[in-house]
Amino acid sequence: MSIALLLIPSLISASVEPAAKVGFAAIFGDHMVVQAGRTLPVWGFSEPFLPITVRLADQTRTTLSAPDGTWRVTFSPLRASSEPIPLEASSGDAKVAVRDVVVGEVWICSGQSNMEWPLSATDHAQEDIASANDNLLRIFTVKNTASETALQDVTGQWTVVTPASAGPLTAIGYFFAKSLRVNLDSPVGMIDTTWGGTPVEAWTPASAFEARPDLASVLERRNNPQVGAPHRPGYLYDGMVRGLAPFRIRGAIWYQGESNVSRAWQYRTLFPLMIEEWRAAWKQGAFPFYFAQIAPFRYGSQNPENCAELWEAQLHTYRTTPRTGMAVTMDIGNVSDIHPRNKREVGRRLALWALANDYGREVVCSGPLYRSSKIEGSAVWIEFDFAEDGLVASDGKPLTHFVIAGQDRVFHEAKAAIVGSKIRVSSDAVRQPLSVRFAWRDDAVPNLVSRNGLPASPFRTDDWPAVTRENR
Q: Where does the record place the Sialate O-acetylesterase domain (predicted)?
């Protein structure tokens, strides 16, 4: 890619004198938010071998651009502030300035259509758009770009949230940020890099699959002409993620998985791998990564257990990948619509994880998550995390969507009784139980919640072969 092409996003998003020879990467644009409390890499593009001077607030750094015209400097951490600070780069008479830069909390939001879903198409859209007037809530939207090669920059711009601008913006990203704004005395910036209908492998660098014989079938899709570009391994990472790193962030939120339901068992490997690769690219350790468990939906021709195995893969990721969290959405889906409209609650639940784990707020961030089981006679006792305050049925009725099986592996509807923070599961049809499953089908809408109203995640107590195990 030529230097001229790399400069285009920067020249659009910042104020530049004519004939400028220096520019910032696109993420450094007017109305941006930079992360508080972290060292701050700042980079851009110019002609080769130019002396570059960069100023951020009261700090100044100098460097020489590389033979390919790229340059980078690093600034000391800044405190959160709603007062705009200057960001300028210059070389000789050429100068570029970014306006209205504030310092606060920055999060990436990514995934497929449910994260991309606009505020204008949600429940209570008119009301929420009318109240979306916050000068210190900004969202950077990355243009959809699928690339066979690794791009050094993305295309996009920052938007200050107002009633006039809010409609097309990511609804979950907005509600997540709004929850942070209510609880933190700090500006909040979201970086929205999303594309509907895309699989997790498209958001993962292709190099991650090359040393994995077990994922060879995934890598083969990269050169398959029948696979569209946005679905090819690495294409969205190279076009929409790579150019953002190492812009300093607090963490990331994610909503994706519908496009991997048929390969749910493989998702147990693919999803943690993607998180690992993103963290490696940002070079700021295991930053927080919180994700929404996909909502119930009838997938038609697919086995109804496929979705349950995707839920299990997401729970597995939470259990095995450090500094992750999962917002369960079993009670706010729509089994007839893969795009449920209640994005406000999804954003709030994701924010609970951040508030509890990253900002020291004393809030309960999750509903019941399966911990362990114990067979006693003809009953199975289930224990949960996040159940210390007790369990309830959201509608006051008997618990639903529990099934139980014995050695024949035939599941029967079960009675589930709440006993403090545990559940006793049994059935007259199964005298010697071996397994309990909960909400184990794609259209399950169970009523088990914690006392704070957050729903339980689907689970199974057995490790019998998954129906998607051989799907590649």
A: 105-351
Mean pLDDT, the chain, rounded, equals 96
Domain that holds residue 66: 3-100
Q: Calculate the alpha carbon distances from 306 to 225, 228, 339, 405 in Å.
A: 27, 23, 18, 19
Tell me: do 115 and 250 sit in the same domain. Answer: yes
| pTM of structure | 0.95
Measured CA to CA in angstroms, residue 365 lies from 120, 223, 418 at distances of 27, 42, 21
The per-type count for the chain, helices as H runs and strands as E runs, is 10, 25
Would you state the pLDDT for residue 438?
A: 99
- The separation between CA 173 and the C-alpha centre of its own chain, rounded to angstroms, equals 9
**Tens-digit pLDDT profile for residues 322-374:** 999 999 999 999 999 999 999 999 999 999 999 999 999 999 999 999 999 99
Q: What angle do CA 439, 444, 448 make, to 5 degrees?
A: 60
Q: Pinpoint the alpha helices (H) of 216-288.
A: 216-220, 235-240, 264-282
Instruction: Work out the pLDDT band at 14, boundaries 50, 70, 90.
Output: low
What pLDDT, on the 0 to 100 scale, is given for residue 301?
Answer: 80
The secondary structure of residue 218, as a DSSP letter, is H
DSSP state of 349: H
Residue-wise DSSP of 162-210 = -TTTSTTSBHHHHHHHHHHHHH-SS-EEEEEEE-TT--GGGGS-THHHH
Show which of 299, 331, 357 is a domain's final residue: 357
Regarding whether 395 and 352 lie in a shared domain, the answer is no
The DSSP element (H or E) to which 5 belongs, if any, is: helix 3-13
